[in-house]
């Protein structure tokens, strides 16, 4: 049996669009000063454990959050993973809640948006690739709220709540009987989560 691989999945810090409650998706909106402070506070929480390196989404708010975490923890950002970008929200990107946004809603999302299933699959592919490349490592992954929530829900087998700005989640991968992938989600938004080890879903 291979050693367990541990991930701390961290949502980027706040942006001005987050503060304005705009849908960001793939739009490349930078961190604001509140977001930078949030990421530094998360670094202080992660300092209690040993971590090997950091990877992130290529969007600037995630890249800068990753750089802050790496600097605070004495680590290196070793790469930016395209599969970790946020969900594409189609025509809803940049919009605030209101009649115009509500008119774009369809079951499971918005017109021309990426499906939840596709987002979860992307997140699962990215984490599995990191397991294959760095088995047994302890990896900080900086990404986006919807991608983290949907990815963790698919891998853990249970619904996961909304991920706060700079919120961190911890999930561990190990191989079970017959090399089945087992995922154990222990922390969501910095607090203990109650579901134990479960087989990954087929879509992961």
UniProtKB/TrEMBL annotation:
The keyword Isomerase applies. InterPro entries: His_Pase_superF_clade-1, His_PPase_superfam, PG/BPGM_mutase_AS, PGM_Phosphatase. The active site is at residues 12, 86. Transmembrane segments: none annotated. Keywords: Glycolysis, Isomerase. One of its GO terms (cellular component) is cytoplasm. The keyword Oxidoreductase does not apply. GO terms for molecular function: phosphatase activity. SUPFAM superfamilies: Phosphoglycerate mutase-like. This is Histidine phosphatase family protein. It comes from Subtercola boreus.
